[in-house]
Amino acid sequence: MPSSPGLFYQVQFYIFGLFAIASALAFVTRKSPVSAALWLVSVMFNLSALYVMMGAHFVGAIQVLVYAGAIMVVFLFVVMLLNLGHPSELSDIRGKWGRLAAGGIGLAMLAQVMVLARSRFFPALQPATNPVFGGAPDRGAIGTIAQPLFTEHLLAFELTSILLLAAIVGAVAVGKRRAAST
Amino acid sequence: MIPEALALSAVLFTIGTVGVLTRRNAIVIFMCVELMLNAVNLSFVALSRLYGTTGQVFVVFVMTVAAAEAAVGLAIIIAIFRHGQSVNLKNINLLKG
């Protein structure tokens, strides 16, 4: 990304930021846990777009995969398991105007994608060239993360695996029915 | 662009804090905590444009911790629900004396 971002870039940045704030406000004000979770997914998608615009392509990808794809599915799964969403709110289909607005927004976003695909308008979508370090070699979107992760932060990375193992064992031990053990 | 991202991060963190303080559903409170973690991740990514990619590496760690926290926390919520048939924090006052 050049040091002086263009107007198009800034407008996109503000749009995603405003969507994120609006979704977060909707998230904390919804009564039903299911619609709150879906608004939080919207926040995460907008944040992922912001990560990509700021040159953190890999972080944007795992934001979608891990947060919106895995963690929120676990949340929704627990909401459904405990039967907390009321059936009237679960069927969240709006009337005619809601559908028209949804279709219009979908078309606008599709048009955005079409424009963004012609990346001469949008230099941030080029592979990460890492302008911060000037002469540093271009290692691509994943290499910029992987290089420090597996050299400087290797110990922390290995400790993360122990943390995940402890979390798995703890979740199974806590969530297990009492009658099985006693 | 970086000041805007930091401001957005602060706003999202504030919204998450307000959610934690005002909601009474334990699962929604957990989701608010996830929102706060996301806000911190945003400032990590924004500052990693100034200070190098260590911030992005840290985001990976934060996501891992968030996943572990979600797994354990939701297991605890399921245990609480099994105990009292409710996840409303008003009904969870065992330590209140």
List the helices and strands and how they pair.
The complex is a heterodimer of chains A (182) and B (97).
Chain A: H1 7-29, H2 33-53, H3 57-81, H4 87-90, H5 96-117, H6 140-149, H7 154-175
Chain B: H1 2-22, H2 26-51, H3 54-84
Protein model, in words:
Helices cover 70% and strands 0% of the residues of chain A. Chain A has a single domain, classed as Up-down Bundle (Four Helix Bundle (Hemerythrin (Met), subunit A)). Chain A is built from seven helices and no strands. Chain A has 182 residues and is mainly alpha-helical. In chain A, helix 1 runs antiparallel to helix 2 and helix 2 runs antiparallel to helix 3. The mean pLDDT of chain A is 80. Chain B has 97 residues and is an all-alpha fold. Chain B has a single domain, classed as Helix Hairpins (Orthogonal Bundle), CATH 1.10.287.3510. The mean pLDDT of chain B is 88.
Secondary structure tally: strands of chain B: 0
Instruction: Name the CATH architecture of chain B.
Output: Orthogonal Bundle
In which range does the helix fraction of chain A lie? 55-70%
Mean pLDDT of chain B: 88
Count of DSSP strands of chain A? 0
- SSE pattern of chain B, N- to C-terminal: HHH
Q: What is the ordering of alpha helices and beta strands of chain A?
A: HHHHHHH
Number of helices of chain B: 3
Structural classification of chain B: mainly alpha
The amount of beta strand of chain B, in percent, is under 5%
> Radius of gyration of chain A from the CA trace?
21 Å
* Main sheet record of chain A: none
- The geometry of chain B reads as elongated
CATH architectural name of chain A: Up-down Bundle
CATH topology of chain B: Helix Hairpins
Number of domains of chain A: 1
- The proportion of residues in beta strands of chain A is under 5%
